[in-house]
Amino acid sequence: MLVPMRCILEAADRKGYGQAAFNMNSFSQIAAAVQIHELLESACILQGAEASNAFMGGESDFMHGSPESKKKGAKNMGNIVRDFGQESPIPIALHLDHGRSLETVKACIEGGYTSVMIDGSSLSYEENVELTREVVRYAHPLGVTVEGELGVLAGVEDHVFSASSTYTNPLQAVDFFKKTRVDALAISYGTMHGANKGKDAKIRREIAIATKECMRHEGIDGFLVSHGSSTVPQEFVRQINELGGRMENAYGIDVDQLVDVSRCGINKINVDTDLRMASTRNVLALFQDHPELRESESVACVYRELTANPVNVDPRNYVSGIMDAILYGELADEDVELVDDCLYRGTISAIAPLLVQFGSYRNASEVIPVSLEEMAERYQKAGI
User: Which of these is catalytic: 13, 97, 183, 335?
Assistant: First the structure.
């Protein structure tokens, strides 16, 4: 069933576990993600960023996608998730990751997203508050959950880039919740975007603890989010490099640290890079085990793009030649099916252990599902 993200986070907060949220970039990834969440009886948060929406709108140059391609992609994402999620026994939310404008938010909600993030962290505090409050005013009457961001994470992810971090001030976070009426807040507390977080990266758990305690003291019914939380499994790094990729200085956040902070008030944990790595590892292995595919009429283009830039493990950079499969699950032949299956299996292998480790495994029944209309009524009664 499709639900606002808020009801999923309410269960995570009440039971004290971390709810992972995974970025999606293809039909088969969404199918795999829903399947493994159902199998492990976990609630499911699937995410699409602005660049992902452009890509899912058929834009190969997705980093410079037009508003039209982003709108088309948001609708495509919404349709796919709706097709898989409507009859699913688990609660599923589709969430916009790092939206940068009210126009983007509107396009995603119209496309079927049940939750949105507005990222005003690069603005002044006052401007961030105003932009976030504007999005809340638009989204809450529609029953849609809103996530904001306060503080700056270092690293690179799609359009998000910063050379250094600015940690979140817990007292300012409380003020932000009060002024914006946002549901959830992504904080900066030591995580980083991308695959190069540095060896032995340390989370400042005390920031999460202090922020949550200040929220409780002020009676704020909100949730904390951890961005830049990919674990970058070293097994994936080793396998990719052995198969011809080139991942250097690739380290993520230690899983044990993420499990710890989920017990300290972090309710949602964003993961993206792990899925990219697992998929690319599988595609590299496919072409090594089946060298004849390198000359395949339908997938030789994938091999050329993949090996042209061995540093980049993002599948969006090498699958543009098989976009019917990526966008709609239409498999032209057996060779395309083999490549698509790599993305499918990679998604499952990256997601499954994290659902168990973060604790959402077998907790889907803890979520009290509501419709967007019912959530809109709740917001109205609460005056938000």
Answer: 97
